[in-house]
Each structure stands twice: as C-alpha cells, then as structure tokens.
Amino acid sequence: MTSAAEGMGDRRLEAEGELSMARLAFDDGDRRHAAEHIANALVCDPTLPDAHELLSALTAGADDRLDLFPVEQPAFLGSVVARAHVLAADGDYAEALALLVSAQCHQLSGRWADVPWVLDPALAGRVAPDDLRTLGMRLLQALPDVVPQDVRPAVQPYLALVRTASSVHPRHSGVLWVTSVLARRMERWDEALSMALRAEKAAPSLQSAVAVAYAYRSLKRWDDAERAFQRALEHDPGNAAVETDIAELLDRSGRAADGLAWVERVLERDPFQENAFPTACGMRFRRDRDVRHLVALGDYLRDHPGNVHADAVLTVWSQSTYWLGPLPSPGESVINVLSQLMESERTPQHGTLSVSAPEPPSALMAFARTVDDFTVTIEDVPAPDPRLAVPEVFESGPVRSVGRRVWRYEGTEARPAVEPPSPEAARALQDIAQQSWPHLLAAYDHAVRLSGLSLDDLLAVAVHPPAPRDAAAWPGWIRSVQAWACLGITHHRADEPWIGSERRAVLTDLAYGPEDWLTEAGLLGLITTAWVSPETRADVAELVGWRFIAAMQANKTRAVTILDSLALLTLATPDMNPDVRALASDVLTPPSTGQAADAGEPGAPEPKRRWWRRRRKGA
C-alpha cells in the first residue's frame, strides 16, 4: 500500500488544495481525476468534511462508484480509504471496516476511522460480532503492546466500537476479549480487566484466561495474574508461551529464582523454544550480569531473525548496559570542567585551564569545540606516557606495533594526523551519529550504510567530526561519531578472512594507539565483530583483554581516565578470559561496599574512580 505527500507541510492546506482540483475535474465531467484528487485529500486529512461531501456527490447512484477507487495490489492508501466510505454508504459495513483496518495497519497514526459512520453507536449492531472479533484481532497484530500516545486518537474509534459491541453482544466472548486487549493496550486497565473477566465467564478458554492474566499483570496484582495463567494452562497443559509468561510474571514480582525455574522446565523439553529461550537468557543475565547469556541470545537471533521476542529481550538488556546499547559518559577533568561551565548562568568564553597530565585528545577537542578562546595547559607527563602507543610502552601482549595513527603530538598538544574527510563522509556520519542502536547486532547491520565510504574517510571523520546540532553536545557527539566510524570500519573489505584483514589491523591500531576515546571506539568495533562472527571471538577476546591489562598496568602510576570504560568493554566481550573478566568487575566495584556494581547499567550511578584523585584547576 502506498501513500502520497507524506511529510509535507500543513496537511489541511494540502487536503483543501487537492479538493479544489477535484472540484474542477468534477465540474468538467472528469470523474476519474476527481476521484484521484479526493483520494489524495483523504490521505492528507481523513476527517475533512468537504472531502466526504464531494465523495458522496461523485459516487451517489453511479454504477462505477467502486471502480473509481481500485484496491488491487499495490493499492494506493487514498483509494482504500475512499472505497471504504463508498462501501459504508452502500451498507456494506463489514467490508468497509476491513479496508479501514488495512489502512490503519499501514499507517497507525492516521485517523482513518474518525468519521461519522464509524463513530455512530448503531454501527456495533450492523456488523456481525465474529467479523468485529476478526477485524479487532487484525488490528491488534499491528499495534504495539502499549499504544503510543500519538497513535491513541486514531485507535480510539475502534475501541469505542468494540466497547459498544460488547453491550450489544454481552455474551460474545470474542468481542469481549478484543475489547479487553485493546483497552489494556490503551492503558485502560480497569476496563480491560472487567471485559476479560466477562469473556472468561461467557466462554472459559485459554485466550480469555490469558487476557485476564494480562489485565491483572498490568494492575500489578501478581497473585491474581498467576492464578489466571494457571487457569490458562488447564486449557492447554504445557503451553510454552503461557509458561514463559508465568516466568516473566514471577521475575517482575520479585521471585526471580521461581521464574527462572519455570523457563528452565520449558527448555528441558525444547532447549531453544522460541519464547522460553530468550526469556531465560534475559533472566540469567539479570542474575549474574554475565554477557555470555546475551551473546547466546544474539547467536539465536541471528539464526532466527524473525523472533520478535528475542529481539525485544536483547534490546531491553542491551539498553541497560553501557556499550551494548548506550555509550558511557566521559570522565576526564576537562569534560567535568566543561559541564560546570555549561551549567553556569553565564558561560565563560575565554580563560585558562591547567590539567595535571595529558588527557585524551578527543576530550580536549570536545572542550575546545564547545568554549571559545580557552587555553589548556598540561602540567606534567607521567609515566607511562599516554601519548605513546601501547607496544611502545609494554613489551607483552599480542600487538607488536601500531601502523595507522590519527593523532600526532607536538609536545603535549595533539593534532589530527589525517586530512579532513570528504563532504559525503561528513554528511553520512552526521546523519547516522544522531541515532542510537538497540543492540550490537543491529548496530552492525545499520553501519552497513557506511560501507561505501573509504577507510581514509572513516578514520578522518573520527578526528574531524562534523558539527552537532547542539553545540553543548560535543562530548557525547564526538563519542557517537567515533563509535559509528569504527562500526563502519567493521564492514571494510568484509570478505577478507579476519586474521590478516585490514579491518582488524585498523581497529587494533586505534585500540592500541595513544590513549584516547578512539581506543574505546576501536575496541567497540572489535567487540561488535565478535558478536556477529563467532570465529573471531578468541582473537578479539585476547586483543581486548590485553588492552585492558595494559591500562591496569598504567593505572599503577598515573590516572587512566578511560579505565572504567575499558572495564565495561571487557565485560561486553564474548568469550573473555574469566580472570580478566573478574579483574574488570573489580575495577567497577566500589571499595566502600565490597559488592560488585551493576557493571555498565545506565540506570545506576556512573562507576566511581577509586585509585586516584585527579588534580584540576578551573578557569
């Protein structure tokens, strides 16, 4: 189904313009063109009274009235909607509603049903209850579990229709069930429960019992919801979807161990059951924060890309974990000072700032791009020198040399070592860097958009980032640009075998080069590759693990501002050495409590720095 003029100007004005063209064609006797313009007007404004009036004038008594609005595939959205109104005028309400529901599924926010004949309470008695149930189920398949606020006005006429139908057909379980589910998704939970209980009383079934359970769950009446799910199992013993629902209910109500036991019983029968396996992976990750559970879920999702539940579970837990979803905030002293400056009522535009030791060039760039005419001086260069690549400081490890470098130092000042990117590359990164990713598998897939850029451009844009829309957003913006640039590098010559590939070499150079935010971005590129390509995991785990150990060694004598972030990346790496993983967990463990933090959980406070106190002097 296609639509016209989407995303353009004022929709009412566009509809009136189309209607003017329709009147001219109608007056000239060109009914075909008049119909096309009316259909366009209805797409722009489905509720415009003048459009409906002209539609009635065009089709009243005409033998070809339906032929004017064909719906052969691919159908034009306006023709579908106009044909529905013509059918309703002929009294064929079931078919008319079916077309409106088709339009609704195509464009959820369109107010296709907000018209007098649908809003007429008498309609509920003009359509067979079985037809209403079928149409309601079709609409529910397209709607998210909680209808977004901007979509609710478009859905409200359907809820009003089935609500009225539940009074007209008070014993029809199907209509009552549809009303319950639709009301629940509109967050009308009391009504949802009332309708579900009536449906179960009218005709006890698996479907009605589940509707009752979902309504109780929305009201957080956990025990009642559990009993309703148990009733559902009486209708269909061993139903894995219901058993998984019980597991999730128990987990949400604070009985995580009982919930996990439920899904594990399902997995004893079917180790990769489509509902239970994703849920079990999420519960296990919540229990011990071990990324191997999410990696297993990612592997499953690659083999079962159509499993919406698996994708949703992976998204939920990735969004709760730094680097798998959101990027952690930087912690350098210049960024802390920058935050204070931006929070002040009057932001200074010039001054001096003295920093005790060199900080990542990307952090200094973010500071310089945000405030004008500030002089930053470096007091000292402690050992090991953060300006040097890791192999130049430590002899151990899998990397013996670093080839490509994107920063060059002149004393303590870092400058880009590459020329600016092409305008095309800058625009591509400016577009994609505004977006986040639900999980690393999706990030990798989305970054294929950058595969047409040259390697030189991807490296250049990391140190010559395009400007963000908000000047105050430079720190987070630079991190996003660099992350996406490295994700783009993961697609460079992707047909090359991993060991010996140029993409591996470049990402490793970034990770093992001078200490910078690009160290983190390079590691992210390596880790993402390991998530999508199991054959690379042992190699990537070694590269990430050794880079983290090098940072730990450096931290013995100086502050490593990216240490916490490297620990988070280490914990996000598939097949990481258990001892290295434990060391990374220790880095993120506040010493005052002795208890491991929820490593990488954005909802928790930022990890605290423990073994150093950075000196800084503000402007």
Give your account of this protein's structure.
The chain is mainly alpha-helical and 619 residues long. It contains 28 helices and five strands. A hairpin with a 2-residue loop joins β3 and β4 (413-416). α8 (152-168) runs antiparallel to α9 (173-185), α9 packs antiparallel against α10 (189-202) and α13 (240-252) packs antiparallel against α14.
Q: What portion of the residues fall into strands of 2 or more residues? A: under 5%
Label the structural class.
Answer: mainly alpha
Helix fraction? 55-70%
Give the overall shape: globular
Sequence stretches where pLDDT stays below 50 over 5 or more residues: 4-9, 603-619
**Rg computed from alpha carbons, rounded to a whole number of angstroms:** 30 Å
For the sheet with most strands, the description reads:
3 strands, mixed
So how many helices? Answer: 28
List the strand order in the largest sheet: 2-1-5
Distance between the termini: 60 Å
The quaternary structure here is single chain
Number of strands: 5
Q: Averaging pLDDT over every residue, what do you get?
A: 92
